[in-house]
Amino acid sequence: MRQAIKTLMVLPENSTTMAPKISALCPALAPIPVARVKRPARTLLLEDLPAYAEATLDAIESFAAEQFDLVIYGCTAAGVLVGPSGNARMVDRLRERTRATVVSTTGAMVEALRGAGVLNTAVVTLYLQPVNDGLRDYLESSGIHVETLNSFFCKTTAELGRITEDQVLELARRIVTARSKSLFIACSQLPTLNVVAQLRAKLEIPVWSSIQATAWAGAKALTAQGFPVQFTEAADGKTIDD
C-alpha cells in the first residue's frame, strides 16, 4: 500500500488562509504541516527580502529530518519582488534543503495562466505599489500582459486579514472590463475559495487566485511523480485530474 503523501507548506507567519484552503482543494494532502516564516508586521518590501529569504530557510530547519514529496513555497509578494530568476533561486535553495519537489505560488501563477491560454489579464491584489509593480513586471516578463490592476493597498498584515469575500468580489467586478480575457487574484491570504467559482460563472473568463493556482500546480507536480492527486475546486465541485 502506498504511504500517505507528505507535503510541507512554507508560509509567512501571519498566514491563516492558505493551509486549510489547499487542504480543501487537494484533500489527499491533508493534514499539511506548516513552516512559518518570520516577517515584518507591514507588507513586504524589497529591502526585507534578504532577511526574509534567510528566515525562510530557518523555518524549515525543524523539518530537516523528514522526507517530503512536495514543498509549497506560498508567498506571492516575496516571489514577485525578486522576479522570476530570484524566485527560481529560492525554489532551488528549498529543493536542496528538503530534497523534495518544490512548487512556488508565483511560479504556479504563471503556469496556471499559461495553461488557460492567457496572454492578457486583469489583476486584483492587496499590496502596496512596490509589490504591485513587481507583480506586473513578473507577469509581463513571463509573457502575460497586465491589462489593468487594482489593489486594497493594505499597509499591515492586520489590514489584509480583515478583507472579506464580498470586498474581493466587489473589487474584482470593478477591475474587470469588457475587454478582459482573464482575472488573477493575488495573495494567498485573500479569501478566494468561494469567490473564484462565482466570478468564473459571472464573467465567463478564466479566473485564478494564488491559492487555486498553487493547489493546481502542487497536484500536477505530485501526479508527475506517480502520486495521482485530484485538484477539486471546492466551491463548485469541479474536479481536475492532472
- Which band does the percent of strand residues land in? 15-25%
**Main sheet overview:** 4 strands, parallel
Question: What is the name of the CATH topology of the largest domain?
Answer: Rossmann fold
CATH architecture of the largest domain: 3-Layer(aba) Sandwich
Number of domains: 2
Proportion in helices: 40-55%
Arrangement of strands in the largest sheet = 2-1-3-4
Number of strands: 10
Shape: globular
Q: What is the CA–CA distance across the termini?
A: 22 Å
What is the structural class? alpha/beta
Low-confidence stretches: 234-242
Q: Over all CA atoms, what is the radius of gyration?
A: 17 Å
Overview of this structure, please?
- With 242 residues, the protein is of the alpha/beta class.
- The chain has 2 domains: 130 residues, 3-Layer(aba) Sandwich (Rossmann fold), CATH 3.40.50; 102 residues, Rossmann fold, CATH 3.40.50.1860.
- It contains 9 helices and 10 strands.
- The strands form 3 sheets. A 4-stranded parallel β-sheet has the order 2-1-3-4, with helices on both faces. A 4-stranded parallel β-sheet has the order 6-5-7-8, sandwiched between helices. A two-stranded antiparallel ribbon has the order 9-10.
- Helix 2 packs across helix 3 and helix 3 packs across helix 5.
- It is globular and about 50 Å long.
- The relative contact order is 0.17.
